[in-house]
Amino acid sequence: MIGKLTGRLDYRAEDHVLIDVRGVGYIVYCSSRTMMALPGVGEAVSLYTSMLVREDLLQLFGFTSLVEKEWHHLLTSVQGVGAKASLAILGTLGPDAVGRAIALGDWASVKAAKGVGPKIAQRIVLDLKDKAPGVMAMGGTITEALEGPDLEVVETVEAAPRPKSKKASKPNTSAIAQASALSALSNLGYSPSDAASAVAEAAGAEQGADEATLIRAALKLLAPKT
């Protein structure tokens, strides 16, 4: 299984790219949001990947973060949600907003993705709500992972030496703050689902808030109503 690709971006299409890794070209399908985040043709690129293997089909899907990859895995585990629908959801909302929508039970936001109807959106929220806290606790971009130890025990295909990209991704501080706040609330004894819902609502109300701000806001939401 190919878990990550690092090489040179040779070609861009509407929904996929061609990555040259030591002379071998890999076609990788991405969400619209990920496509916009990728560097230009000829530049260095790194993507986490997920492989779809069927009797008549072999496809690679690319992600700039482990959070996005995990949401793709979970979304496609829901009955009726294929890779195309998953990428549409991730492209419309982004991985952080997907987590907030599912944690809050906001199926209307999920339905905003092209090709996703109300029944599928409701099924996604119902099936994945309990799994949202675990994904929200993840964080980090492909750039951060490359600068530290490997995070996955899978076959990795890399070009060596790895060239520097001109468009290095910035650390996802919002995701890190949400993960830290979620951990703090769990340590205080709140259930994962309640903590995730409160953090998601707080993050949605205060964009870019730091960990302390999110914790205070979440605690207010979790306080008993009098």
TrEMBL record:
Q: Name one GO molecular function term.
A: four-way junction helicase activity
Source domain of life is Bacteria
Summarize the protein's role. Answer: The RuvA-RuvB-RuvC complex processes Holliday junction (HJ) DNA during genetic recombination and DNA repair, while the RuvA-RuvB complex plays an important role in the rescue of blocked DNA replication forks via replication fork reversal (RFR). RuvA specifically binds to HJ cruciform DNA, conferring on it an open structure. The RuvB hexamer acts as an ATP-dependent pump, pulling dsDNA into and through the RuvAB complex. HJ branch migration allows RuvC to scan DNA until it finds its consensus sequence, where it cleaves and resolves the cruciform DNA.
Protein keywords: Cytoplasm, DNA damage, DNA recombination, DNA repair, DNA-binding, Hydrolase
The residues the entry assigns to the signal sequence are none
Every DNA helicase Holliday junction RuvA type domain range: 1-62
What protein name does the entry list?
Holliday junction branch migration complex subunit RuvA
Q: Which family is it part of?
A: Belongs to the RuvA family.
Compartment(s) of residence: Cytoplasm
Domain comment? Has three domains with a flexible linker between the domains II and III and assumes an 'L' shape. Domain III is highly mobile and contacts RuvB.
Summary of subunit composition and partner proteins:
Homotetramer. Forms an RuvA(8)-RuvB(12)-Holliday junction (HJ) complex. HJ DNA is sandwiched between 2 RuvA tetramers; dsDNA enters through RuvA and exits via RuvB. An RuvB hexamer assembles on each DNA strand where it exits the tetramer. Each RuvB hexamer is contacted by two RuvA subunits (via domain III) on 2 adjacent RuvB subunits; this complex drives branch migration. In the full resolvosome a probable DNA-RuvA(4)-RuvB(12)-RuvC(2) complex forms which resolves the HJ.
Q: Where is this region: Domain III?
A: 173-226
